[in-house]
Amino acid sequence: MIIAVFLTTVLIVFLIQWYYERKKYYKFADLIPSAKNYGILGHGPHFLGKNDEGRFKLLHDLCLKYNHLIKLWLGPAILWVLVNDPKSIQKVLLSPVCLEKPFFYKFLRLDSGLISAKYDVWKIHRKSLNYSFNLRILQTFIPIFIENAQKLVNDLAVNIGKTKEFDMLAYTSKSALNMICGTSFGLDIKNITMGDDVFHALEKLNRAISARSQSFFLYSEPIYRMSKYYRDEMESRNVCYSSADMIIKVKRKALEDEESADNNDHEHNVDTDELYRESLERFPQLRSLKKEDVIDQIKASLQKKVTQAGDEDMPTRKIFIDHVICNDTKFTDNEIRDHVYTVVAAGSETTALQTAHTIMLLATHPEIQERVVAEIKDVFFSDAVEVNYDNLVKLEYLERVVKESLRLCPVVPVIGRETQAPIKIDDDIEIPAGITLLINFYTLHRRPDIWGDDAEEFNPDHFLPEHVEKRHPYSFLPFSGGQRNCIGYRYAMIALKTLLVHLLTAYKFSSSMTYKDLRFKTDINLKLCTKHLVSIEPRN
Hints:
This protein is an alpha+beta fold. The chain is built from 21 helices and eleven strands. It comes from Chironomus riparius.
């Protein structure tokens, strides 16, 4: 009896203390509008009984209705605030107190990956890796993009003349993975044991992480470990990690062999005795030094010149994996694996999905597709005209088409931030520290008050210069914004354009589906509820 009273007292004291610690959050939450709150259950009942599509649609509808701020309680303790208007989104993404990711990013188990790392870690790693994604480097990737685009065109040829439609995503997935292996790791996927299993593992992993993030009960690690999702996650993670480890092993061996060959060439090709004699003639003061010391200085000077010369040339070797493995930051093995995994997951799936989404949009809008093809023919009017960066820039209508595809189908539809200190969103509302903020790009990109009455329609003219200048700069954020934006946004745009130029030059795409049939759901990325079903016929 005494023990029961004692435990009850402890529990009551704990609950009182917990309530007062959370009181400021409840007081703040009272200022934010929302749908009906079911008390201790929060807003969970609104989402019960709905599938992935239904939950995503409900979130979209709520954000349209409460188009400034809306709160969502997951039970009595977890509060999410969705920030929906461009001005407030800009304040959040540019604020130094909103650079940390919320707790559910830990579910990715990528402590060093750029997507989920703590800000202090991210800041160092992002600075180290930025060089791998500068425009000069990206231009050297275009031949790899072209090679993979041509292979994709050839792979699609088996579907010519068939009445049954095929899933475009199944093809773009392989192509995007090829691109990542070639551009970021300097590897040819044909020479390594990596392919469909990796992409399927990523999809399965995303579903598990998404299911966990949407279920309050699965936030507990012990409870989550008893679920099917945990088993799916571990099985998929093993596939992805094994592939990442294999990439690192192969690349390290290649770099070691290359360095060894360079050293051997240098030792065999340099006549140090001759250089020593010439140095003494030019600099008599060196006679006071030992011959070995003079030769060491000569070798060091030669190595410095070789390095400087390499830096001045168009970069060809210092790709992503080279920077990760050979960086002055000295990444640990786990950090290297996190970065490799992040690039494979984010890079390949993003490119694969966005290419497939764009093809679906063009297949359901044949008049827009033909206008794109006409522009491509104008720019690449003969085989002598190269597909290079300068010519890709000339494709202004294709640029608008790609942006419109990114508007309607942002691959990452929702992101999160956590406030580290109070931040004023407007004159009336100050968000306290410790609040999870969500930004729904999918809804932001479909607001009628921003995009007009045709906000839900596929209309590339939304990105005509005269329309763009009227909109808030944070109305369109397919790659997020602010300091922690996507490092690979330029990569994605160049890759997408290169793929589309080759695909649309080779084939006319059509679909039995209409634009209205395209319904979306989300795990981590935005997915169609159906397959990307298209058919092709060759162009002349």
